Amino acid sequence: MPLLQEILSFNKTFVEEKEYEPFKTSKFPDKKLVILTCMDARLLELVTKAMNVKNGDAKIVRNAGAVVDHPFGSIMRSLLVAVYELQADEIVVVGHYDCGMSSLDSHSMMKKMTERGIEAETFETLNYGGIDLHNWLKGFTSVEESVSHSTDMIRNHPLLPSSIPVHGLVIDPTTGKLDEVVNGYNHLDK
């Protein structure tokens, strides 16, 4: 059975048997928290369990590496929506050890793109249009530095109130142990 059909078949039973009921909550996070974390499959449930966050407690934003690399990109917009529209009062960036972004190589990725049908002319067109794919597809060498950089980008955003603490953590994807990188309370206006 194709994956989509498997998902839809399961969902039909899920809804018919009202298995959604334990997950009912409002759109506002009970802990007034928004978490930015990585899309790594090992973290799907581990991050929330390790932080004692249950369904309805937090807003969760995910991307490759838990990285904020543009102050006016979709990640920052999502964090601002969580703060202004959904009543989040704290932000936590959670990176993780053994992150795929720490070994991301633009040349290797572009080679894989070519193998899957992306034409060399496409790369040339993007380059001519001012897109530096090698810079855009680069990873990081230190997860702690990346988390610190993302917390700085968020905390110093001109549209984020200075009263919002922005914390930075790194999680072990095997054990769930959290290491503090940035304590956002230390950066609040006193």
UniProtKB/TrEMBL annotation:
UniProt name for this protein: carbonic anhydrase
Pfam families on file: Pro_CA
Entry keywords, A to Z: Metal-binding, Zinc
InterPro entries: Carbonic_anhydrase, Carbonic_anhydrase_sf
Family to which this protein belongs: Belongs to the beta-class carbonic anhydrase family.
Enzyme class: lyase
Organism of provenance: Bacillus spongiae
Enzyme Commission numbers on file: 4.2.1.1
Reactions catalysed according to its record: hydrogencarbonate + H(+) = CO2 + H2O
Cofactor(s) the protein needs: Zn(2+)
CDD domains tied to this protein: beta_CA_cladeD
